[in-house]
Protein backbone atom coordinates (compact mmCIF):
# COMPACT_ATOMS: atom_id res chain seq x y z
CA UNK A 1 0.00 0.00 0.00
CA UNK A 2 1.86 3.11 -1.19
CA UNK A 3 1.66 6.27 0.88
CA UNK A 4 2.70 9.40 -0.99
CA UNK A 5 1.87 11.68 1.92
CA UNK A 6 4.28 11.50 4.88
CA UNK A 7 1.48 12.72 7.18
CA UNK A 8 -0.72 9.83 6.07
CA UNK A 9 2.10 7.37 6.75
CA UNK A 10 2.69 8.87 10.20
CA UNK A 11 -1.04 8.76 11.00
CA UNK A 12 -1.27 5.12 9.95
CA UNK A 13 1.79 4.14 12.00
CA UNK A 14 0.48 5.97 15.06
CA UNK A 15 -2.89 4.26 14.58
CA UNK A 16 -1.15 0.88 14.45
CA UNK A 17 0.59 1.79 17.71
CA UNK A 18 -2.82 2.23 19.31
CA UNK A 19 -3.22 6.01 19.38
CA UNK A 20 -6.64 7.51 18.75
CA UNK A 21 -7.49 10.13 16.17
CA UNK A 22 -7.51 13.00 18.68
CA UNK A 23 -4.09 12.05 20.04
CA UNK A 24 -2.69 11.80 16.52
CA UNK A 25 -4.19 15.19 15.65
CA UNK A 26 -2.58 16.73 18.75
CA UNK A 27 0.80 15.18 17.95
CA UNK A 28 0.79 16.23 14.30
CA UNK A 29 -0.91 19.60 14.76
CA UNK A 30 -3.71 18.65 12.36
CA UNK A 31 -7.48 18.66 12.65
CA UNK A 32 -9.13 15.44 13.81
CA UNK A 33 -11.11 15.40 10.55
CA UNK A 34 -7.88 15.47 8.55
CA UNK A 35 -6.53 12.51 10.50
CA UNK A 36 -9.82 10.65 10.14
CA UNK A 37 -9.63 11.16 6.36
CA UNK A 38 -6.01 10.07 6.15
CA UNK A 39 -6.50 6.81 8.04
CA UNK A 40 -9.86 5.90 6.48
CA UNK A 41 -10.01 3.30 3.75
CA UNK A 42 -10.69 5.15 0.50
CA UNK A 43 -12.17 2.36 -1.54
CA UNK A 44 -15.93 2.44 -1.35
CA UNK A 45 -17.45 -0.98 -1.86
CA UNK A 46 -21.18 -1.21 -2.41
CA UNK A 47 -21.22 -4.18 0.00
CA UNK A 48 -20.51 -1.72 2.83
CA UNK A 49 -23.38 0.63 2.04
CA UNK A 50 -26.65 0.60 3.92
CA UNK A 51 -29.75 0.12 1.81
CA UNK A 52 -31.58 3.32 0.93
CA UNK A 53 -34.73 3.98 2.90
CA UNK A 54 -37.91 5.11 1.24
CA UNK A 55 -39.17 8.34 2.71
Describe this structure in words.
- The chain is mostly helical and 55 residues long.
- It is 49% helix and 0% strand.
- The longest helix has 11 residues, at 6-16.
- The mean pLDDT is 84.
- The best one-word shape is elongated
| First-residue to last-residue Cα separation | 40 Å
- Element order: H for helix, E for strand: HHH
Number of strands: 0
Low-confidence stretches: none
What's the multimeric state? single chain
Mean of residue pLDDT values: 84
Mind sketching the topology for me?
Blueprint: H1 6-16, H2 21-28, H3 32-39
Helix pairs in contact: 2-3
Q: What's the gist of this structure?
A:
This protein is an all-alpha fold and 55 residues long. It is built from three helices and no strands.
Q: Could you name the key traits of this structure?
A:
55 residues; mainly alpha; 3 helices
